[in-house]
Amino acid sequence: MSAPAKCGALGALCFVLLVGALLVGVVMLPGDVRAQEKAPASTNHRTVVEASDYPWSAIGRVNVAVSQRGHCTGALIGERLVVTAAHCLFFRATGRWVAPQYVHFVAGYQRGEHQAHSTAARYVVAPGFDGARWSDPLNLPHDWALLVLAEPIGRQTGYLGWRALAQGASADQLMKTSTFSLAGYPRDRAHAMSLDAGCKLERFLTVKADLPPLLGHHCAIIGGDSGAPIALMKKQTLQIVALNSAADVRLSNGNMINSAVPLSSFAAEIAALLADTEPNAQPTREGRPGKPPARQPARQ
To answer: Cis (ω within 30 of 0) for the bond into 55?
Structure first.
């Protein structure tokens, strides 16, 4: 089964479903990892959340308007800065990156309503991501993008915190003792934000010694969840630690796991763009807290 035959022009919707078949014996991981069943055909067990309420209002759909429409998930981590997956922005029909003006971030989207909207003024993708190679396993550690929005809608919706979770004993302990969440727009319920509140991060994964690590996770994902934030709940906000990238990654021992890109892999780029887009910001490469909107929107 070839990717173009099943994925359409963008390919963003089913990247997570195809990559598992392409990763046989590539991710090297010492020891045994709990086997992961095939990515679920539906996400009906996920909880639909009220997208107008913070922190969910800072999460939204990344809509790419070209000859065929596709969507991924993204999250605001600043007034104008959104994190999402790089593969969502590559137009496979032309072999080119989508022009920023065709990339729309719709924050707090729910059944045709939304809290805020902006097109991208520009975006940055990982230098190592090769759109032409698309679901090549060597692309996975680079599957991140930062959208700089034309409008500072994060003032209206609030934005999420983020944390650079780096390899080490403290990260291992956090993953062992904490439950994480993933919220996004899976294709089976593409018009309602839904939450898997019981995610587990397994451990860091190595694709190749000279590439940044991935994070293995067991969140319930299908197409549309690309770029969805994997986060800790912290005092009524979310602290993003990674972006969902691919499902059914086959490890060297034959087990399966889902993969995510840790924000620690591009913390320097996040800090630089926050400093550029928010003159009063004082970002660090370790992260920063989230910020709710000045006031919650009135319920209709």
So the answer is: yes
Look up residue 51 and give its two tokens: 């997208």
Residue 295 lies in a domain: no
Give domain status of residue 146, yes or no: yes
CATH number at residue 63: 2.40.10.10
CB 128 within 8 A of CB 141: yes
The one-digit pLDDT tens for each residue of the chain (300 residues) are 233 333 333 444 344 434 443 443 345 443 322 333 344 455 667 899 999 999 999 999 999 987 556 789 999 999 999 999 999 999 888 888 999 999 999 999 999 999 999 999 999 999 999 988 877 888 899 999 999 999 999 999 999 999 999 888 889 899 888 889 999 998 877 788 999 998 889 889 998 899 999 999 988 888 888 999 999 987 778 999 999 988 888 787 778 888 999 999 999 999 999 999 998 888 789 999 999 998 755 544
Compute the 3-state secondary structure of the chain and give helix, strand, coil in percent, each to the nearest 5.
20, 35, 45
Query: How many Å is the maximal CA-CA distance in the chain?
Result: 53
Q: What is the DSSP letter of 53?
A: S
